[in-house]
Write a structure and sequence with these properties.
Chain lengths: 447, 317, 281
C-alpha cells in the first residue's frame, strides 16, 4: 500500500464501490441457503434485526442485546453471533466477511489492536461527532485512544481490560515485600525464587505474549513501534533499545532463575490461572476474570476459602524501582459495520450497550471492567470486585499495543521471535524481532 | 468434457473421435456415448473442484495481493516464490512435514502389517471384534482424536504425566516431544487404514506358495520375507503412497495441538497462516502451489521410481 | 486349516484381540471420561472423573454453548449427508460405466480420481475462499458441499467400480429371458446385488466428509454453515480467556457417536468396501 492511500481518511471502501464478478447463480444460492440469516434483515413486516458479532463471554453481551432491544421499544431487535475464542481468530472471521462487503454485520465487538486495520480498510462506519462526544464522556483515556485511529473516534468504547499483579498475601508478608508501592519484576522474581515457586506469566506463542512484551517495553519507557502510522515499509521498531533489551532481560531472568514454572512456552491466561490456583505460582499477571473464576471454584467446592482469602492484587509490576508501570490495555470496543443497512439503529444500540449502567452490570456479571469511570462507583461493582479501585488506576496508566493497520504482522512477528521464552536473549532477540517484523511488513518474509 | 489442464497426460485422447480407423459399430458408438454421459458429470465435478482452483491459485500467486488492501494489488511475477524459497521458515516447515511423513508412515507400515496379519489369521470368534475396534480410530474425526491426545498429554488436564510419574513435564514445550505426540495421534488414527489395505494384499498371497514353502522347511520369518511380502508388493506400495501423501498434508493435528508453537509448523499450516491469518492471498497462493508440487513430486517418485502400478493394483486392467 | 487349536493358542488370540481393542479405544475412553468431569476436576490430571456429572452435556445441549453446537451439528449432518448423497449418485453412474461399458477414457477417469484424491486441501482452499467470496458461496451449505465432493467422489468411484465389477450382470439377461421386463430384472436382480456396495460407499464417503476440518474453518464464518469440527474451536469458558475443555470434550463425544454406531452395525461391510476399493488383483 502506498503512502498516499494511508493518509486518506480510511473510509474509502464504504458503500458498494467494488463491483466484483457476481454470477447470477450467486443470488440463487445465497437466497436459498442463508435465507435464515437474511430474512431477519429483509423482512418488511417486522422491525429490523441487528446482528452483533460478539466475542465469547459469560452471556453478558446477549443479555445487553436483549435489554437494549427492549429499550428501543420494538423499533429493532438485536441478535448476537459468536466469534472464536482467541483475538486473532476473531479478526480472521470478521475480515473475511467484511472483505466480502457483508451487510449482515451491523455491530462488532472488536479488540482494540485490530481497529486501525479495520478503519483503514473501510470496514467501519463513521461515528458522527455528536455521538462521539457522548460516548467518550467520562471514559478512561486509554480506552478512547484505543477506540480511535488517525485522531478520530472510529469505534465506541465498551469495556476496558487491564492486567493486575496477583499474589499470595501470605508469601508476600513472609518475604516482607511492601505491596502498597509499585513492585518490580526483579523483586517478585527474587521472592518466588526464595520460595521455590514460580511466576504465572503467559509465554505461549499467542496474543498473550505480545501483551506481556508490550507491557514491559512500554513500562521501561519504550515503544514497540516508533512510528506506527508510517507506511509498512518505513516502520521503525523500538525493540533494539534499552527498553526492548530490558524486557528481554526480564524474560531471560525468569527462565534463568528457575521461576518460569512448568510449561511456560505453552502457558496462556487460563493455564496461568490454574497454576496460581493450584499453588504452583506465588505471583501471576492476569486479567480480572481470575477473580470470579476463583469465587466460582470456592462455590463448587474445588477450592478452599483460605486459598481465595490469600489472593492479593496490585498494579502491574514495573521495570525500574520507584517508577510506575504501564499495564496492558485490553477490552472490547464496538464498531459499526460499514455495510450495515441500519447504521442509525446500530449507533443507537451501541450507545445503549455502553451506558454506564450497562457497563457496571457487565463488569459485575461477566468480570469485564467498564471503560466509563463512573461505572466503577457502582456499589454493587465494589461488592463483586474489591479490586475495582486498583483496576481503575491500572486503566489510567495502561498502555495500548501498537496501533497500526499491520498489527497482525507486528504481533505475529513478535510472537515468533520471542517464543519459546527459554530462547529469549537481550542481546539477540530484539534484533531478530526487528528484522523479522520489518521483513514481513515489506512482504519479504513468511510468518 | 475433456480438458487439457490436468497433469495426467492423456487428456487429448479422451474426446470420442467420430471416425477412428475401422468404422465403429452403432452399438459401440452408443456405448461410448452412454459411457461418457454416465461418467461425465463425476469427471467434470472432479476437474472443476481441483483443476480450476489450482490454476486460479497459480494465477494469484503471481500477484502481491492483500485481502484488506485490494486497491494495491500488483503483478509481481515470481517474487512470492522467491520470498518463500529463500525463507528459512519454509524449509523448516518442509523439514517438519517430511519428518512427520517418514516417521508416521514407517511406524504405520510395521504396525499396520502386524494388525493385518492378526486380522488375516484371527480365529473367527475374535475377528469381528478386532475389525470393529480398528475401524473406530479410522472413523473418528481427526480433530476429536487430536483433542483427545492433546488433553491427555497437556500440562493442565493430562493424565499421562500422572501415570508415568513425570510431574510437570511439558510434552509440548519442545519441538521433538511435541512432534512425537503429533505423530502418535496421527499413527493411532491412520494405522487402521493402512492395515486394511495390507489385509487386502495379504488375501492375494496364494496359499499354495505358503504351503510349499512350509513343506520345504522355511521358517515363519523366511516365509514372510520370501513369500508373503514379495507377493503383496503392489498392495504395500499403494498403502505407502496413499499414507505418505496423506501424512504430507497434515494440518488438523497441528492446528489443534500446537498451532505451530515451538517450530511444529507443517507446510499446510504455513500456507493457512499466510492466507487466512495474514490475508496475503498472493503469498498464500504461492505456498499452496508449492505444497501441490511437493505432493505431485512424491506421487511421481513413487509411481515412476518404485513402479507402483496403481491401475492394476486397483483392479483396473 | 484352523481346525485343531490348543487352548494356549486360543488364549493368545484373545489376549491379542484385547490389546488391539485397548489400543483402539483408549483415547476414546479418555475423552469420554473427560467429558464427564465436573469443572473442578478437569485439571486434576486423573484418568477417571471423581464426581461424574452431565454438566458438560447440559452446556452444549441447553446451556451457553447450545447456540453454537446445535446449529453446527445440524450443518454437519446436512452438509455431509447431501455431499454423500450427491457423490454416491454421481459415482454410481460413473462406476457403472467403468464396470460395464467399453469406452475410451475409462483410465483417464480413474486416474483423475486418483489425482483428485491426493490433492492437498490447503491448495484448493485459498482460491476457493477467494472465488466463493466473489460469487457469494462463502459461508453457505453449497460452499462446503462442493469442496467435499472433491474428497468423497474419488473414493466413491473406486469403491463402487470395484463392487460393480463383481456383480454377475448376466443374471439380468437371464431374468429377462425368464420373462421379466427389463425394469423388473433390474429391480429384482441387480438392485439387491448392488445395494450393499452402494450403501458401504455411502458410509465411507460420510466418514470422510464428517472428518473435514480445513474447509470447515476456512470457508465458513457463522452458524449458517459452520460444521462441528470447526465449531469446536469456538467454544468458550466463562470468559474468552478460559479453556472450554468440558464443552469441547462433550461435543467431541457427541459427534463420535454416529461414527461408532455406523462402525458397530456395518463393520464387515466397511472393511469389505475399503479393501475392495483399494487393492484388487
Amino acid at each position: 500500500m502506498g503512502p498516499g492511500a494511508r493518509t486518506s481518511r480510511g473510509h474509502r471502501g464504504a458503500g458498494t464501490s467494488r463491483p466484483r464478478r457476481r454470477a447470477p447463480i450467486t443470488f440463487l444460492a445465497v437466497g436459498a441457503i442463508s435465507a435464515g440469516l437474511l430474512t431477519a434483515c429483509g423482512g418488511e413486516s417486522g422491525p429490523p434485526t441487528l446482528t452483533w458479532y460478539t466475542n465469547p463471554d459469560d452471556g453478558g453481551q446477549a443479555e445487553l442485546a436483549r435489554r437494549c432491544a427492549e429499550d428501543s421499544g420494538g423499533r429493532y431487535r438485536i441478535e448476537t453471533a459468536a466469534l472464536p475464542r482467541d483475538a486473532s481468530s476473531q479478526r480472521e472471521q470478521l475480515v473475511r466477511r467484511l472483505a466480502a462487503n457483508d451487510s449482515s454485520i451491523d455491530l462488532i465487538s472488536l479488540d482494540p489492536p485490530f481497529i486501525p486495520e479495520f478503519a483503514e480498510a473501510g470496514f467501519l462506519a463513521e461515528i458522527p461527532e455528536d455521538v462521539a462526544a457522548k460516548v467518550t464522556e467520562g471514559v478512561v483515556e486509554g480506552a478512547v485512544a484505543g477506540a480511535s485511529w488517525n485522531g478520530e473516534l472510529v469505534t465506541v468504547p465498551f469495556w476496558a481490560n487491564t492486567q493486575l499483579l496477583w499474589y499470595k498475601k501470605s508469601v508476600v508478608e513472609q518475604a516482607g515485600l511492601d505491596m502498597s508501592r509499585p513492585v518490580t519484576w526483579d523483586q517478585i522474581i527474587q521472592v518466588a525464587k526464595q520460595n521455590g515457586s514460580a511466576l504465572g506469566v503467559q509465554g505461549i506463542r499467542a496474543e498473550a505474549l505480545t501483551v506481556w512484551v508490550n507491557a514491559m517495553v512500554t513500562s521501561a519507557g519504550g515503544q514497540i513501534l516508533e512510528n506506527p502510522e508510517a507506511p509498512p515499509e518505513d516502520v521503525r521498531l523500538g525493540l533494539e533499545t534499552p527498553a526492548g533489551q530490558a524486557a528481554a532481560k526480564v524474560i531471560q531472568d525468569i527462565v534463568d532463575q528457575g521461576v518460569a514454572g512448568a510449561g511456560l512456552s505453552n502457558r496462556d491466561e487460563d493455564a496461568s490461572a490454574t497454576l496460581f490456583e493450584n499453588g504452583g505460582a506465588d505471583f501471576m499477571v492476569n486479567w480480572p476474570f481470575v477473580w470470579p473464576r476463583a469465587n466460582g471454584k470456592v462455590e463448587d467446592g474445588s477450592m478452599d476459602q483460605a486459598t481465595l482469602d490469600d489472593y492479593g492484587w496490585a498494579l502491574y509490576p514495573s521495570m525500574t524501582e520507584g517508577e510506575q508501570s504501564r499495564p496492558p490495555l485490553g477490552g472490547i470496543n464496538l464498531g459499526v459495520g460499514a455495510f450495515s443497512k441500519h447504521k442509525d439503529f446500530v449507533l443507537e444500540a451501541a450507545q445503549c450497550i455502553t451506558s454506564t449502567e450497562n457497563q457496571a452490570y457487565y463488569f459485575r456479571t461477566n468480570g469485564n471492567p467498564p471503560s466509563k469511570e463512573a461505572a466503577f462507583d457502582d456499589p454493587e461493582v465494589r461488592e463483586a470486585f474489591p479490586q475495582a479501585p486498583v483496576i481503575r488506576e491500572s486503566l489510567q496508566n495502561a498502555a495500548p499495543r501498537p496501533q497500526t493497520p499491520y498489527y497482525n504482522e507486528v504481533s505475529g512477528g513478535l510472537q515468533r521471535t520471542w517464543s519459546p521464552p527459554e530462547s529469549v536473549d537481550p542481546n539477540s532477540t530484539p534484533e531478530k524481532a526487528t528484522s523479522l517484523i520489518q521483513g514481513v511488513l515489506r512482504k519479504e518474509k513468511l510468518l | 468434457m475433456s480438458t487439457t489442464t490436468m497433469p495426467p497426460t492423456k487428456a487429448p485422447k479422451t474426446e470420442p473421435k467420430s471416425a477412428p480407423k475401422g468404422a465403429l459399430s452403432d452399438r459401440a458408438r452408443s456405448e461410448r456415448r452412454l459411457g461418457w454421459m454416465l461418467a461425465g458429470p463425476a469427471f467434470a465435478i472432479m476437474l472443476l473442484v481441483t483443476a480450476y482452483p489450482i490454476v486460479q491459485a497459480f494465477y494469484e500467486s503471481l500477484f502481491d495481493y492483500r485481502l484488506t488492501d485490494p486497491d494495491n494489488r500488483s503483478f509481481t511475477w515470481f517474487s512470492n516464490y522467491a520470498v518463500i524459497l529463500t525463507d528459512s521458515i519454509w524449509w523448516q516447515a518442509l523439514g517438519v512435514t517430511v519428518g512427520i511423513t517418514v516417521v508416521t508412515v514407517a511406524v504405520e507400515l510395521v504396525l499396520g502389517f502386524a494388525l493385518a496379519m492378526v486380522m488375516h489369521k484371527a480365529i473367527t470368534s475374535v475377528r469381528p471384534v478386532v475389525r470393529t475396534a480398528i475401524l473406530i480410530p479410522y472413523a473418528i474425526i481427526t480433530v476429536v482424536s487430536a483433542f483427545a491426545w492433546w488433553y491427555g498429554f497437556n500440562l493442565t488436564s493430562g493424565f499421562v504425566n500422572t501415570w508415568l510419574g513425570l510431574g510437570d513435564y511439558d510434552w509440548f514445550g519442545d519441538t521433538l516431544p511435541a512432534l512425537a505426540i503429533i505423530c502418535l495421534s496421527e499413527i493411532w488414527k491412520t494405522t487402521p487404514f493402512i492395515s486394511l489395505l495390507l489385509l487386502a494384499g495379504l488375501a492375494q498371497v496364494p496359499e499354495v506358495l505358503q504351503e510349499a514353502a512350509k513343506v520345504d522347511g522355511a521358517t515363519w520369518l523366511q516365509r514372510l520375507w520370501k513369500v508373503t511380502i514379495p507377493n503383496m508388493k503392489a498392495a504395500i506400495m499403494v498403502a505407502l503412497l496413499f499414507r505418505a501423501l496423506d501424512a504430507f498434508r497434515i494440518f488438523d493435528n497441528i492446528f489443534i495441538m500446537t498451532r505451530g508453537n515451538n517450530n511444529t509448523e507443517s507446510v499446510s499450516f504455513l500456507a493457512y497462516r499466510q492466507t487466512i491469518s495474514r490475508l496475503e492471498i498472493g503469498l498464500g497462493s504461492a505456498l499452496s502451489v508449492l505444497v501441490f508440487l511437493c505432493v505431485v513430486l512424491i506421487a511421481v517418485v513413487f509411481i515412476k521410481g518404485f513402479k507402483v502400478d496403481l491401475a492394476s493394483a486397483r483392479g483396473e486392467k | 486349516m484352523m481346525g485343531a487349536m490348543s487352548t494356549r493358542e486360543r488364549v493368545l488370540w484373545y489376549l491379542g484381540a484385547l490389546a488391539i481393542v485397548l489400543y483402539a479405544l483408549f483415547p476414546v475412553a479418555w475423552i469420554i471420561s473427560l467429558s464427564f468431569k465436573s469443572q473442578g476436576d478437569l485439571t486434576d490430571r486423573n484418568f477417571l472423573p471423581r464426581n461424574p456429572s452431565w454438566g458438560n452435556y447440559e452446556t452444549i445441549f441447553s446451556g451457553s454453548a447450545r447456540d453454537l453446537f446445535l446449529p453446527a451439528l445440524r450443518n454437519s449432518l446436512g452438509i455431509c449427508l447431501i455431499a454423500t448423497f450427491v457423490s454416491v449418485v454421481l459415482a454410481m453412474f460413473a462406476a457403472y460405466a467403468i464396470a460395464r461399458l467399453d469406452f475410451p477414457g475409462k483410465r483417464l477417469i480413474l486416474s483423475t480420481a486418483l489425482v483428485v484424491a491426493i490433492f492437498p486441501a490447503i491448495s484448493i482452499v485459498t482460491p476457493l475462499f477467494n472465488l466463493w467470496r466473489g460469487i457469494g458461496l462463502y459461508d453457505t451449505w453449497p460452499g462446503l458441499i462442493i469442496p467435499y465432493l472433491s474428497l468423497t467422489l474419488p473414493i466413491s468411484i473406486w469403491t463402487l467400480a470395484a463392487f460393480f465389477r463383481e456383480i454377475p450382470w448376466e443374471m439380468e439377461q437371464a431374468a429377462q429371458v425368464d420373462g421379466a421386463t427389463s425394469w423388473q430384472a433390474f429391480r429384482k436382480v441387480i438392485v439387491p446385488l448392488a445395494a450393499p456396495g452402494v450403501f458401504t460407499t455411502a458410509i465411507i464417503s460420510f466418514f470422510i466428509a464428517w472428518n473435514d476440518f480445513i474447509y470447515g474453518i476456512s470457508l465458513t464464518s457463522t452458524e449458517a454453515s459452520r460444521p462441528v469440527p470447526a465449531a469446536l474451536a469456538f467454544f468458550t469458558g466463562a470468559s474468552q480467556f478460559e479453556e472450554p475443555t468440558g464443552a469441547i470434550t462433550a461435543a467431541a463425544v457427541v459427534v463420535t457417536i454416529p461414527v461408532v454406531v455406523l462402525v458397530l452395525l456395518f463393520q464387515r461391510r466397511i472393511v469389505a468396501g475399503l479393501t475392495n476399493g483399494a487393492v484388487k488383483g
